[in-house]
Amino acid sequence: MSDLGTKIRRHYEETTPPIDINALVDRMESPPARPRPQVRRGLLIAFVAAVLVVIAVAIPSLLNNPSETPVIGPSLPAPTTVPSTLATTTTVPGTTTLPVTTTVPEPAALGPPVIDTYVEDITFDASGDMWAIPGYRAPDRTDGFASFDDEIYRFTAGTWASVELPNGFSLPEAIHWTASAASDGSLWLPGDGGLARYADDEWTLFSADYGCGSVAVDASGGAWGTCPDGLWRLDGDSFTPVSALGQDLWGWSVGGGPDGTIYMPVNGRYTSELFSFDGSEWTKTTCADQARSVFGCQQFLGVGPTGDVWLQLGYNGMDGLIRLADGTLEPEHVIGQADGAVDVAFTADGAAWFGVPADRDRDFILADDRGLILADYEAKLGLFRFDGADWRHYTTADGLASDSVNAVEVAPDGTLWVATDQGIDVYNEELDNFAPANP
User: Fold this and answer.
1) pLDDT tens digits, 191-200
2) Fewest 10 Å CB contacts: which of 34, 225, 262, 283?
3) Each residue's pLDDT tens digit, 103-135
4) What is the domain count for the chain?
């Protein structure tokens, strides 16, 4: 027995109840028992299962979230998303060029207010504004033009504006006349009291005894008027009577050509002549044939694009047209188309447009000494177009407000405008008709 056994025996000999000392010693001296095999297998199985669970969870996570370098240090707060303050960029699709659709207006009023009263003349100034001048037959109105001797009207900035005439001045009565627009932008009017000039929103009145019947402006801006006792030229602030080629010039119609040349028909008892002044010299052309009792050139109408001069011809009390071409007078229609025309305008195609007003509506029968009728003359009113070969007659059936046409004018853009005793009309070239309209 070992020393441990001897010590145990001595200690437990007197123990009550008695202890099997030999068995106790044997158990204490024997080596410790090994764990049971089934227990060790259970732990191994549990460990392997745990490892498999970890692998099953970790592998998908690793596939979806590749490993990143670990951040060393304290954890940072999650980043905050700040909305952008920049303007959003909009993608604009490419522009597609569409065909332009042109709407052709039918004969109808084109925008208020439509001027529907007697208009003696229309003209365009250097800025392109239209001027409308009422005639002596215009009534007092509250919805359109005022009395003829009070105001004229200007179409500017898309609307009509009235301009009062200066004190001591009124428009001519009982004759057809035209206003004259100068290249400096001024507008000239003839009338009772002399010549009136409108420029820079102000009137200047150049007085003449008994007034002036017509006015024209030459290339230098000088004004000419048919005033008392013949033709007068405004020289500075005073009127100077004009004589040419040894004779006084008396008549009621003076006009200017596109190049500034001044034209004036002059009629004597047995003669009729057309005087023209190109700025340096005078020229005279005979109009009448005394043997045929032709009275001659009555009124200057205008100059065409080829330089032809058109005049109203008086033939034994009847009105016709005469044209001066290449220095030769050619009666276009002594009795025929556009008899009694008081104005002409020329469109870009070279056509001449003539207006015939109501006071030229008169019939005339020409007979010889035996009573034999030589001509049965009946005037036609309206608007006449002459293209150099053929004539076309326009009336209210073609959209004109009236058959009484007082003035014809072409705007800077080439549009044809017509003044009648019932307002202003505009020509529609595509439809070949007219409609009451504003510029």
Assistant:
1) 888 899 999 8
2) 34
3) 333 333 333 345 667 888 999 999 999 999 887
4) 2
One DSSP character per residue, 160-200 reads: EEEEEPPTT-B---SS----EE-TTS-EEEEEBTEEEEEET
Q: Pick the range with the lowest mean pLDDT from 126-135, 302-311, 393-402.
A: 126-135
- CA separation for the pair 376, 335 (Å, rounded): 10
- Phi, psi at residue 203, to the nearest 5°? -95, 145
Return the amino acid letter for 227. C
Amino acid at 119: V
Other beta carbons within 10 Å of 398 = 18
Beta bridge partners of 162: 153
What is the total residue count of the chain? 439
Range of the domain at 12: 1-32
352 token code pair:
């001449």
Chain centroid offset of residue 195 CA: 33
CATH number of 218's domain: 2.130.10.10
**114 SS3 class:** coil
428, 435 Cβ separation under 8 angstroms: yes
Distance, in Å, from the CA atom of 152 to the CA atom of 11, rounded to the nearest integer, reads: 153
Per residue in 279-303, pLDDT tens?
999 999 888 654 455 557 888 999 9
Residue with tokens 């209210």: 396
In a domain, 28, yes or no: yes
Q: Domain check: are 307 and 207 in the same one?
A: yes
CA nearest to 430, candidates 413, 408, 415: 415
Cα gap 385→391, rounded to integer Å: 6
